[in-house]
């Protein structure tokens, strides 16, 4: 009957796992920079086996048991590897001696979306998609027939995004202020980011010019869930 033998995998150098728990990006290091593998089964009759010692040779992310697994390789055979599961909240990329891990991007969930027509001097509540005469997020303000603004109200903040949609995450990364935007600065095709007075992010596009005073501003908007 064939005698079974076992292998002892000995970690011979210091290492650590570092992760910034609340950061968007973190690093996971391999546990050691050098590994020693030796047989633990006793050998009779003068036989011996030289321990295998090797430095860290590389890393990989592999599917093992149907799960994404971080692999540190000290040789070509899996017996010389160390492994751990990828954190469920991260996506990791292998580098020469560690793994660069980023938070999984949570898909933006839409709360409300659609077209709105804002009469001059009226306000819009983007949390509810309603044109109102009071208590809302943005105001189509008219100081005179030619000096007109989109003005944030009730703690909301706004900022010009440009001529392309930037989505929820793009709006999160922009500087938004409680400062009116003159209407000429947002011609047809412009996008504006909003943080509503209830703390949600929204974006609207100017679809049609307001025309001569008193005018109506036509927008298409999307408000995302928190």
Automatic annotation (TrEMBL):
Record key words, sorted: Signal
Signal peptide segment: 1-23
Entry keyword annotation includes Signal: yes
This protein's name: Uncharacterized protein
Organism per entry: Leucothrix arctica
């Amino acid at each position: 009957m064939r005698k079974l033998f076992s292998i002892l995998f000995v970690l011979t150098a210091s290492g650590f796992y570092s992760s910034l728990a609340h950061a968007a990006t973190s690093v996971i290091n391999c546990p050691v920079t050098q590994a020693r593998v030796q047989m633990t089964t006793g050998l009779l009759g003068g036989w011996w086996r030289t321990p295998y010692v090797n430095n860290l040779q590389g890393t990989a992310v592999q599917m093992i048991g149907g799960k994404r697994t971080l692999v540190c390789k000290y040789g070509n055979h899996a017996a010389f590897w160390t492994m751990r599961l990828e954190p469920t909240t991260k996506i990791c990329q292998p580098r020469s001696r560690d793994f660069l891990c980023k938070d999984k991007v949570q898909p933006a969930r839409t709360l409300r979306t659609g077209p709105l027509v804002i009469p001059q001097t009226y306000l819009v509540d983007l949390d509810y998609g309603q044109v109102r005469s009071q208590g809302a997020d943005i105001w189509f303000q008219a100081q005179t027939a030619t000096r007109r603004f989109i003005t944030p109200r009730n703690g909301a903040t706004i900022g010009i995004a440009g001529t392309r949609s930037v989505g929820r995450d793009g709006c999160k990364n922009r500087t938004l202020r409680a400062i009116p935007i003159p209407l000429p600065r947002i011609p047809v095709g412009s996008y504006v980011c909003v943080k509503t007075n209830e703390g949600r992010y929204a974006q609207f596009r100017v679809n049609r010019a307001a025309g001569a005073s008193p005018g109506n501003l036509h927008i298409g908007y999307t408000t995302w869930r928190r």
